[in-house]
Amino acid sequence: MAKKTTRSATTSVSSDADAPLTVPGLDAATGHRVADALQMRVHALNDLALTLKHAHWNVVGPHFIGVHEMLDPQIDGVRDMIDVLAERMSTLGVPPNGLPGALVAARTWDDYDLTRADTAAHLAALDLVYTGVIEDHRAAIEAVGDDPVTEDIVIGQTADLEQFQWFVRAHLQGVSGELATSGTSGEVEAAEKVSRRSRKR
């Protein structure tokens, strides 16, 4: 990793400006606007991948191995989504930003709240994380609607994210189908509610 240095105001070796082009069939303004809509999706998915890995390292309890091993394919899948969106941005003529400083500066959500916790607590918190990411991905479908190719990518990713959430939610449902986290709005609140239920058994 490079040493931290004072940055110069301008440079001739790098640019974050849009390219003077986009894909055939779209005008540059439309292509760049569609690509810009993907940047927050890149940030959100980078954050999600790190959060899932953090949970993967920190789950404990009798169901550890099942949850630990369930999360790795989800992490890999989310990382693949990031690459697809970033490459689509570049294809459309906009340089993607995958740097951690840009993510932290742009995000509208807080860091994940849990560290070492039992599997039920992490799954309860991750369910809410997935809900936020999926809701924003669904909003992005409309935002990129002027480009059916990009729209198709985001729709496919939303379906995959919904399936990942289904795997998480299966651990939180009873036979009635109701989620154990029903009525909660924050990660800690959801985790505490599920942990209390687990202790009563």
What do you see in this structure?
It comes from Nocardioides furvisabuli. Residues 7-19 have a biased composition (Low complexity). This is DNA starvation/stationary phase protection protein. Pfam families: Ferritin. Residues 36-173 form the Ferritin/DPS domain. By secondary structure, this protein is an all-alpha fold. Helix content is 64%, strand content 2%. The chain has 6 helices and 2 strands, in the order H-E-H-H-E-H-H-H. It has helices spanning 28-58, 64-92, 100-106, 119-143, 148-170, 187-200, and strands spanning 59-60, 117-118. A two-stranded parallel ribbon has the order 1-2. Helix 1 packs antiparallel against helix 2 (64-92) and helix 4 (119-143) runs antiparallel to helix 6 (187-200). The protein is globular.
Tell me about the largest β-sheet: 2 strands, parallel
Side by side, the strands of the main sheet go 1-2
Order of helices and strands: HEHHEHHH
**Low-confidence stretches at least 5 residues in length (pLDDT < 50)?**
none
Say how many strands there are.
2
Strand content: under 5%
* Radius of gyration (Å): 19 Å
Shape: globular
- Helix-and-strand structural type: mainly alpha
| Count of discrete alpha- or pi-helical segments spanning 4 or more residues | 6
The averaged pLDDT comes out at: 93
Query: What percent of residues adopt helix (DSSP H or I)?
Result: 55-70%
How many angstroms separate the termini?
49 Å
